[in-house]
Amino acid sequence: MWHKLMPAEFGFYDLFTRHSRTMAEGARVFVEVLEKWPSHKNVERVYELEHECDTFVRLAIDLLHHTFITPLDREEIINLASTMDDVIDGIQVASRRLVLFEIDAVPPAMVDLARVLERAAAVVSDMVSVLKDFKKIDEQRERFERLHALENEGDGVFHAALADLFKTHASDPLRVIKLKEIYETVERAIDRCEDVGNIVEGILLEHG
Question: Which pLDDT tens digit goes with each residue over 6-23?
């Protein structure tokens, strides 16, 4: 019954921080997966990190059920935890599809897109790890701007990658379909990073 003894502020913020850092680690490992493809060596590590993030979500919900006064609104807590989980879920799905689709070679643009995701996830981790300190508004604003810039950069890489995909593999529509689906999954994960930023920004405006 550790959650009944732990101060609510420590419990939730600690879970958020650990969740965000695990998510960011998943993005980093995903880049390694793509860089070393077709080796499957690091794919299992992505799966493990995704499972860890699921655990953090369950712990946050469990803590909600046992905490009368929470440091944030209950809806904010659920939205933050679930949206961070969307990021690592996207990373896990993309990794799994590399295997299921039997992708033999990864386009350089996919690695580039994953690196944008890695940087965005790192910004999210930095943002969430200091969420408890509502006085760091200026630092957080800089992170919001970086996230927005990374989302725009991701859009550019994504659209250029699709254009090249259709041009280079026009004679292999099945390959186009497979790679396009993976590209879209990674791009959505970047979008979810920006969504986390928007949630944090809303929390700061509400409680700062």
Answer: 444 448 999 999 999 999
